[in-house]
Specification:
Chain B: This is ABC transporter permease. The complex is a heterodimer of chains A (255) and B (269). Chain A has 255 residues and is α/β, with parallel strands linked by helices. Helix content of chain A is 38%, strand content 23%. Chain A has a six-stranded mixed β-sheet with strand order 5-6-7-3-8-9, sandwiched between helices. Chain A has a three-stranded antiparallel β-sheet with strand order 2-1-4, with helices on one face. Chain A starts with a strand and ends with a helix. The chains are: A alpha/beta (255), B mainly alpha (269). Bound molecules: adenosine-5'-triphosphate and magnesium ion.
């Protein structure tokens, strides 16, 4: 499925948050969105997923969701948003239950997705027993189980330590290589953006405007930490963002 | 540098992190209780507590044992228990229902919160004569009193608990396209359960207070009636026997709710 964001403008009360943002997310592509803090990245993602209505502009979806898709636009949240009273398997089955998938059929699907996310041994664990990385794996498993047409990830790795982040990035790349999915990936971490994005959209400070969209030409599976091409790109991104980030930082002091 | 470290004496870093984490020490409560009773027993025997002030604990125990032997204990406890159970079951289930509705719907909230605020501070005992006129002198008026008394604190605890359910979890449910009913059943209600259960402690305690009040105003059997009789005869042993039964009831319900919390809220850290 392809998404088409057309000149979105959004404000909260008097505060303009997004200004005329237009984007296209092609099928099977991971689009990373980077920008200084408070520039409206999360807002943009909420608008794309239909959790909020934009003031101006619209979001169009083109093409059909894959066969068996239970929830075309599916989020992965920064703070995991797992139900603490449900086990890992219970959290993953939450959406299946609403579609009447139970018993053996549900078990087969859940086992498959827990295998893919390396969670098989943690089926019966409660969220409070899991590390942050494991919790985010569960959230990713919960998103994968609905066979989403587009995954919307809001800083999914920023609550995790650097090593766990690296491992999970490798897992995401492996998942994508196995079965390409479409994704919008919001992050403030440029290393994540150059590692996972096919394209990277840079937003200006608030009100967020589209500054630039960069292509990353290296195939996803070939990207390694320390690759000179990626590092050059990351440096280029930082050049674009540096002044914005500094200005955004100053701005907060005046609010 | 190394000279210095050899000359000056090495001391362990002092520990400063203790305290502020009360934990239940098993048996401490019993010890306090026994000490207090022993003190009263000693005082009444030695004479520095007059018999008119406090009865001897051992006499109260004898009274309780006699009651249990003669079957009078059960004669009084059974009707009280059934009043408490039926009345508070009505009040608590209605309270949880209304509280959830207030937590979910703006119109219900706007309409009912002022009403609940108006009902809450009324001493419900003052309404008993009215309830007697409405429901008769029998059980129904007692049920109604206990039900109303447990209803308001349950409503307040429940809608507070629903308000406090993590909004990101509800957002998550919506983002996965869950039905409204699923969100309420699988996210809102379990999320509100801790708050509802702790409200239950308050509600049941108020229920016990109202139970006794209602029984004092008109009942043949029941712990309240028993205490009233004993009081009017100035029979301190029996009066205190009644009080002991009430405290036991309080401890028992609080323990029961504690067990319920342990079972239902195992997911909490
Ligand atoms: N529901 C809301 N009501 C009012 N203001 C909001 C709301 N949500 C966000 N904002 C404001 O809109 C601006 C953009 O917020 P948003 O969360 O989209 O930024 P962000 O780019 O995701 O920031 P961060 O990097 O901190 O995650 C911020 O100034 C924020 O205070
Ligand atoms: Mg954000």
């Amino acid at each position: 499925m392809e998404l088409n964001v057309q000149s979105l403008t959004h404000r909260y009360g008097d505060v303009p948050v997004l200004q005329d943002v237009s984007l296209t997310i092609a099928s099977g592509e991971i689009l990373c969105i980077v920008g200084p803090s408070g520039c409206g990245k999360s807002t943009l993602l909420r608008l794309i997923g239909g959790l909020e209505r934009p003031d101006v502009g619209r979001i169009l979806q083109r093409g059909d969701a894959p066969e068996g898709c239970l929830n075309p636009l599916t989020y992965v949240f920064q703070d995991f948003a797992l139900l603490p009273w449900r086990t890992v398997a219970g959290n993953v089955s939450l959406v299946l239950e609403d579609h009447g998938i139970r018993g053996g059929a549900a078990d087969a699907i859940i086992n498959d997705v827990l295998d893919r996310t390396k969670l098989r041994d943690f089926r019966a664990a409660l969220p409070r027993q899991l590390s942050g990385g494991m919790k985010q794996r569960v959230a990713i498993a919960r998103a994968l189980v609905v066979d989403p047409a587009v995954m919307l990830l809001d800083e999914p790795l920023s609550a995790l330590d650097a090593q766990t982040r690296d491992l999970l990035m490798e897992d995401l790349v492996a998942l994508w290589s196995r079965q390409p999915f479409t994704a919008v990936y919001v992050t403030h971490n440029l290393a994540e953006a150059v590692r996972l994005g096919h394209r990277i959209a840079v937003l200006s400070r608030r009100p967020g405007q589209l500054r630039e969209v960069l292509d990353v030409d290296v195939p996803l599976a070939e990207r390694r930490p320390g690759d000179p091409r990626l590092e050059a790109l990351q440096a280029q991104l930082w050049q674009v963002m540096k002044d914005e980030a500094a200005a955004a930082d100053q701005e907060l002091l005046h609010v | 540098m190394s000279d210095l470290s050899q000359e000056t004496e090495a001391r362990p870093v002092p520990f400063r992190g203790g305290g502020f984490r009360p934990v239940a020490k098993a048996g401490t409560g019993v010890v306090v209780f026994v000490l207090l009773l022993a003190l009263v027993e000693w005082g009444t025997r030695a004479g520095w507590i007059s018999n008119l002030t406090l009865p001897r604990p051992s006499d109260v125990a004898v009274t309780l044992i006699d009651m249990a032997r003669s079957g009078m204990l059960w004669t009084h406890v059974a009707p009280s228990l059934s009043r408490l159970v039926i009345g508070s079951a009505m009040g608590i289930s209605a309270g949880i229902g209304v509280g959830v509705l207030i937590g979910l719907f703006s119109h219900v909230r706007a309409g009912l919160i002022p009403l609940v605020a108006a009902l809450f501070p009324i001493p419900k005992i003052a309404l008993l004569p009215l309830f007697v006129i409405w429901f008769g002198i029998d059980e129904a008026s007692k049920y109604a009193l206990i039900a109303l008394g447990t209803f308001t604190p349950t409503v307040v605890a429940t809608y507070g608990a629903v308000d406090n359910v993590d909004r990101t979890l509800i957002r998550m449910g919506q983002s996965f396209g869950l039905s409204w009913l699923s969100i309420v059943r699988k996210i809102v209600l379990p999320g509100a359960l801790p708050g509802i259960l702790s409200g239950l402690r308050v509600s049941v305690a108020i229920g016990i207070i109202l139970l006794v009040a209602a029984e004092m105003l008109g009942a043949e059997y029941g712990i309240g009636a028993y205490i009233l009789q004993a009081g009017s005869l100035y029979d301190l042993e029996r009066l205190f026997a009644g009080v002991v039964i009430l405290s036991a009831l309080g401890v028992l319900t609080s323990w029961g709710i504690g067990r319920l919390e342990m079972r239902l809220l195992r997911w909490r850290s």
